[in-house]
Write a structure and sequence with these properties.
heterotrimer, A: mainly alpha, MetI-like fold, 2 domains, flat, B: alpha/beta, D-Maltodextrin-Binding Protein, domain 2, six-stranded mixed sheet, four-stranded mixed sheet, 12 strands, about 15% strand
Amino acid sequence: MNKILRNKRTGDAIFSGLFLLPIILLVGLFIVMPIIQSVIMSFQDYGARNLISGKPGTWNNFENYKSLFRSGLIANSIGITLRFVAIVVFFEFFIGIILALILNSKIKGARFLRSLMMMPWVVPTIVSALIWMWIFQPQYGVFKALVEFLSGGAVDNFAMLNNPQTALWGIILAALWKLTPLMTLLLLAGLSNISEDLLEAATIDGANKFKLFWKIILPSLKPVIKVSVLMAIIENFKQFPLFWTMTGGGPDGATETLAVLSYREAFVSFNHGSGAAVTTIWLLIMIVIVILFNMAFRED
Amino acid sequence: MKVKIKKTLSGMLALTLALSVAGCNSGKKPNPSNSKESNVENSVASSVSKSDSEENVNLKFANYAILESGYTDFWNGVKSDFEEKNQGVTIEYVTAPYGEIVNTIINMAAAGNKIDLLFGENSWVPGLVDSGLASPIDEILSEEFLSSFYPSVLKDYEMDGKTYGIPMYISPFLLYYNKDILKEAGFDNPPQTYDEMLSMAEKISTLKTADGNKIYAFGQTTASVPVSGASLNALIFTMGGDLLDAQGKLSVDNEGFKEAFALLKTLEEKGYNPQNAKLKDLRNLFALGQLAMYYDQSWGFNGINSINENANNFIASAAPLKTATSKGESLLQAHSLILVNNGEASAKALDTFVQYLISNETLENYLQNVTPAYPATTTMESLKLNPALDGAKGSEANVKSQVQIPEISNLHLELASLAQSVTVNNMDVDQAIEQFKVKANEIVK
Amino acid sequence: MKQNKWSALKVISRIVLLIVFVFLLFPLFWMLLTSFKTNMEAFRYPPTFIVEEATLQNYVNLFTVNNDFFVYYFNNFKVSGLTTLTTLVVSIMAAYVLSRYKFKWNAALIVLITASQMFPLVSRLISLYSTLTHYNLIDSHFGLILAMTASQAPFTTMLMTGFFDGIPRDIEEAAYVDGAGRFKSFFSIALPLTKSGILAGGIFTFLQAWDDYLHAVTLIQTDSFRTLSAGIALRYLGELSYDWTLINTISIIGTIPMLLLFFFFNKYMIKGIVAGAVKG
């Protein structure tokens, strides 16, 4: 008996190894190795000339990091990235849960609305960026016309993406437009999994709508919320094409997130060491946030 | 029964996968020493055409412009015409978006695949030299050919006593203006100084287009792209200022530098300058008659024309503006060719090709009708210019040489940020310049 | 009293619904409207809401003059489709093992896979390029698909693990006792049971791949191999000028087939997500 078990165990191991091999190879080769290289590079003086000549970079005593802090670029970018992620994820969830609750309330045409709602999600990010740039266009944009109309003609030159105070909000709108549908869909899926009996029982017990939401619906949605919010955090942390297409980090650095900064350092200035330093910091922040997030969801 | 069907299905899945992977391989360029199959293919091909394949030279030409509709015809024509005239030399275009192409060729070179030629801005040269991806042109081009270029122009391509890259044609950031708008405002001639411009602007900004749209008086690009920074660099020069000193160190504590950004602030406060605009935004507004004057490279004409074919009727050019004390010197812009020496055979073909490109026959029609610009060689002096450029004639020689540093593109980006901080971010000029210096000192070390 | 409260809530919810849907759909409507305008009309302020001189010229141009677009389009379908297929194969295999077999290394692997979703692509671009060059896979669809599979697989694996966790293992265990091998229980028992999950994961992966910009712009240099986003950026967002009506037309044409496809698969996607992703 023991032998049979041991044989099964070995067979299992071989089978597992075989099935795990592709993903280990892919992740190792295309993700882990590059990340290790990038972290090493962040401590080196490494530019395009090293890349081309194959000369290894030279250790530069944290100069890449020091320079980023001295110029204030990294502090600015961290602030903007965190603001962007926090605002987008908050509104994504807020709009998503309200929309999901409404669409789940047996309203007429819910199925059709659900499909309609998903439309922005299918639009490629680059195209979304273009659509919103066109809407925000400073001279002929329809948003400018809207603001002029709503303000009774008082504000006749509103240019969302040109003003450092509003540019980030322009991109936030575009990101929300593209990502809220998926969040809603996930929450909707979670809602439809809550058992009718539970809801009915609570209603009979005299719970009103709000109590029902706080005491029954929200707790049962917890796993869905965890997954979808985590997805949203990661997705928005990595957002690049929207920024690069819509503002390129401007005006006056107002939308220069870590993604934009690292791209600019590495691929516009060809200072790959400095670009790698930005992504290393970026990575650390992301890891800390994800760990905090997981802790927060585990505690209560 | 059911299990059987599933089995067949999964078998089909595996089959499709195998087929699709094979399909992918066929979508891949045959590459020598790639895999066994393509090796076989290759040896078959070479045994058939062995006689002429030995002299065949393939020039890899990285060119973003071929994919932009305004330029496509010209570059396709160049390839077919040159290949017909020079049997045994083929041109292979490597393409990437404008903002991505330098990055692309660096990646390619890092992987051991060096291009032979790049079409691009002259401000790309220092970075490429620093990367080791630009060769001194005297290694490749004949001395006689080089002697036909204006020495002052070639000087802009010098780094450490050697010349890297060569201009196809040149332009300063010149002043394009709309004759009709100026006339409507009561002016027959374009301004010559910034003060004149400002007083004209006051009048112009009261006008509206036929549709009732606002007319901007004066456009200066300030968007977050390197070329906007280059244009700002030119603005500083026209006001007699400096960005870098002769050693390539930051040198911005001068009147001209400050005046340039004070001007931008004035333009912003009076609403003369479209905010945060890219050059293509300005071209757009100009083409639609919503912008009276603006600074652009001469080839911006091509972009204007593609929006409004009637722009020919009202476009005219003038020399860059001056201040009371400055000479109005601009910064030289050039669509340049950056050469890489990949051995004797390709260098020889490259020499032939570059001489073919920068010749009266190739450029005459292009410079006159498609991409107006000024010639860079004495041999092309007699070439007839596009009439739109007549007004600014001579200003291509009134340029200040910029010291070349590898970080110039990044520094130009910071200049754009500075312009944005005094305009859309409403910051005090002195304070903004101090803030700029902190960042710029990290770039120029 | 209670009746009243409910109807107030109903009215508010309808208003909210209206606002959110205007936000979600107006940009698409505006894009459609602009695509029928001439450039001169598109550049008018205030913008016209009823097209004055409606023209199909932009569409005609797209099919005749600017038709490189369709090459990008086809490539995007090919690359996204094959990426989806390889991602599914890789992820399903990994997910099955992670869900069914408990080994010491599983935990480490799960951490690795979760973490690799977080790594920004920008930081991997340089090494990615040189790795692919090393294997002679640069500037080819095969290399692009491999790289994209590596980026997609971690998330899809986590998704699929959730699905497998959601189906009871009794059947497989029974089959094992009956002498069915591991491959057999995987192919003929576990796989069929996760059909809807596979479909949902597939659609999700496809849409992610469809959206790719950075991979393609970095790894492809030959124009005829380019995919949609990179192609659009390259050809229609040039340095020279903006042709806004053409851009809007391209956006419409680039979006509609995906919309149709999505409407068709929508049902399965939702079913799949309800079935498992959420429970896991």
